[in-house]
């Protein structure tokens, strides 16, 4: 492992925990999410999964990235798309450039093949957000997105879309309508019940298929035993 | 959304708030203790006893009628002792800087049912003064009663005495702190319930399942510093293994 890569890994320590330490309890929790996604839609082969939350800062991007990683670890070909055109973050997480990205594809400036970036995780490719456009909702609502998703469905097993919060902008609603399944990330002790109810209503109104929620930032009281159980299980 | 509160949930909820409640109780008790010990002036109490019993010169025996009469007189005496007439003379005698009604409020007269003994209690920040007031009052009363009621049946049973190391009767810091503790318990519970009521955030998977018709696909813990530290040591072997697809 080169020195550069090592430094990069240290910087990523917090966000990409499923890659950095696959034996950790948290990685195991992401694998549980992966399993439950598959169980949530047994009859339909879920291809496109949208990650959103009610309000900003509840852990959508981190959850989306880590779930992507555990899918990739399973041997699936995974494509992560950053569709948060208000506050993109995926390029920070994966230490790539932001542009060209999704906005460039949708505005027909770049071809898809030139925009997709490989990451240091095998089987996981990303499309960053790209230059922040003035009209994100129109871009995302365009037919270009449908054709992009359709084209990518052939090449990838799982497409994970990191969306903006559902209650702040309409983008997530547009995207949720185009995806096979939507997952609502909820931050423990932060997300208000009322916001969740509204978020679910909004998603239902856009005919999104809600796969379920992920309860993020959960504090386990006596993490000792739980943790050791998973550790010994993993290392054996 | 139905709000049901059963006993075990209530207990669990209070258990969660124990630190807060203990904090509030400790705060109440310490404030009460601090105020009791430093701000409140200690009040001392002196007491004196008088016996109401008519001196019989003509006859050498008591009859029950006499006792009955005395008992009835006692009620009158109780009022007379704390009357303005007596107290203003006490103030005059001791050159006190207070009004008769001030003095009246620091004085308490009581007698046991059917007993001819009357207790007079005087409270004052200064024990010596309390003793003086108690004794003077009784003396003045004894003198004046001859004139007022034309009887001489008051005897001083035990005068108030000044004792070193007398504990003040007020404030009672232990009692105050105990009361503050109870108030703290109620306040703590009240604040806890308020916090719970105003906190509308989601707290557990159970809550999610109860409130929303949506599956919980998973719970992700907070990524702790401990975990991140551990990672850095184990990056190489583990990441290589995992990329081989060891966890499929």
From TrEMBL, chain A:
UniProt-recorded Gene Ontology molecular function terms: non-membrane spanning protein tyrosine kinase activity
Reaction(s) the record says it catalyses: L-tyrosyl-[protein] + ATP = O-phospho-L-tyrosyl-[protein] + ADP + H(+)
Alphabetical keyword list: ATP-binding, Kinase, Nucleotide-binding, Transferase, Tyrosine-protein kinase
UniProt-listed Pfam families: AAA_31
Residue ranges constituting the AAA domain according to the UniProt record: 47-195
Enzyme Commission numbers on file: 2.7.10.2
Protein family according to the UniProt entry: Belongs to the CpsD/CapB family.
Name of the molecule in the record: non-specific protein-tyrosine kinase
Biological source species: Sporosarcina oncorhynchi
UniProtKB/TrEMBL annotation, chain B:
Subcellular location, principal: membrane
Bilayer disposition of the protein: Multi-pass membrane protein
Cleavable signal peptide: none
PANTHER family: FERRIC ENTEROBACTIN TRANSPORT PROTEIN FEPE, TYROSINE-PROTEIN KINASE
Keyword Cytoplasm among UniProt keywords: no
Keyword field contains Cell membrane: yes
Transmembrane segments: 20-40, 174-198
Domain (Polysaccharide chain length determinant N-terminal): residue spans on this chain: 3-94
Name assigned to this protein: Wzz/FepE/Etk N-terminal domain-containing protein
Native source species: Sporosarcina oncorhynchi
Compartments where located: Cell membrane
Family: Belongs to the CpsC/CapA family.
């Amino acid at each position: 492992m080169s020195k550069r890569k090592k430094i990069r890994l240290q910087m990523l320590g917090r966000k990409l925990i499923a890659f950095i330490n696959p034996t950790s309890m948290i990685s195991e929790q992401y694998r549980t999410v992966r399993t439950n996604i598959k169980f949530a839609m047994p009859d339909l082969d879920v291809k496109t999964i949208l990650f959103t939350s009610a309000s900003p800062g509840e852990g959508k991007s981190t959850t989306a990235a880590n779930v992507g990683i555990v899918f990739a670890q399973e041997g699936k070909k995974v494509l992560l798309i950053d569709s948060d055109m208000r506050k993109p973050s995926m390029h920070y997480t994966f230490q790539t450039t932001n542009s060209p990205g999704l906005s460039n594809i949708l505005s027909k400036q770049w071809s898809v093949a030139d925009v997709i970036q490989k990451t240091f995780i095998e089987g996981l490719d990303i499309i960053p957000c790209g230059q922040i456009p003035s009209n994100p909702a129109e871009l995302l609502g365009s037919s270009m997105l449908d054709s992009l998703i359709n084209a990518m469905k052939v090449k990838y097993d799982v497409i994970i879309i990191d969306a903006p919060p559902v209650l702040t902008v309409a983008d997530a609603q547009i995207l949720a309508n185009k995806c096979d399944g939507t997952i609502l990330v909820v931050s423990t002790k932060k997300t208000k019940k009322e916001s969740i109810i509204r978020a679910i209503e909004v998603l239902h109104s856009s005919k999104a298929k809600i796969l379920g929620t992920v309860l993020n930032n959960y504090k386990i009281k006596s993490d000792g035993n739980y943790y050791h159980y998973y550790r010994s299980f993993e290392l054996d | 959304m139905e709000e049901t509160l059963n006993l075990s949930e209530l207990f669990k909820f209070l258990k969660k708030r124990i630190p807060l409640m203990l904090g509030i109780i400790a705060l109440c008790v310490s404030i009460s203790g601090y105020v009791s010990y430093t701000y409140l002036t200690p009040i001392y109490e002196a007491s004196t006893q008088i016996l109401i019993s008519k001196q019989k010169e003509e006859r050498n025996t008591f009859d029950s009628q006499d006792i009955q009469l005395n008992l009835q007189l006692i009620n009158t005496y109780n009022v007379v002792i704390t009357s303005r007439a007596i107290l203003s003379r006490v103030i005059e005698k001791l050159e006190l800087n207070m009004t008769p009604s001030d003095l009246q409020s620091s004085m308490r007269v009581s007698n046991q049912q059917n007993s001819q003994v009357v207790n007079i209690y005087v409270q004052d920040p200064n024990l010596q003064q309390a003793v003086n007031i108690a004794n003077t009052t009784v003396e003045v009363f004894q003198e004046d009663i001859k004139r007022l009621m034309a009887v001489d049946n008051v005897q001083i049973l035990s005068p108030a005495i000044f004792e070193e190391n007398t504990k003040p009767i007020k404030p009672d810091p232990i009692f105050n702190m105990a009361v503050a503790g109870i108030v703290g318990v109620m306040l703590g519970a009240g604040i806890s319930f308020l916090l719970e009521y105003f906190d509308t955030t989601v707290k557990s998977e159970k809550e999610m399942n109860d409130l929303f018709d949506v599956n919980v696909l998973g719970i992700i813990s907070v990524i702790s510093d401990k975990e991140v530290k551990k990672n850095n040591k184990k990056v190489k072997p583990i990441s290589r293994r995992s990329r081989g697809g060891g966890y499929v």
